Amino acid sequence: MDTALNDQIPTFEKGDKAVQEVGLSNWSALTSGPGIRTWLEVAAIALVAVVIVGGAELLLRLLEVPQYILPTPSLILMGLISDFRFIAPHTLITLKELLVGFAAGASVGFVLAAVITQFPFVEKIITPYIIRSSPRRCWRWCRSSSCASASAPSRATLRSLSPSARW
Amino acid sequence: MINSATGFRRTDLAKIALARSFGANTMQIFLKIRIPMAMPMIIVGLMVGSIFGLLTAVGAEMVGGAEGLGNRLAYYSSLIRMPQFFAVILILALIGILIYVLFFWIGKKWASWES
Question: Which of B5, B19, B101, B107 is 20 to 30 Å from the Cα of A71, by its Cα?
Answer without folding.
Answer: B101
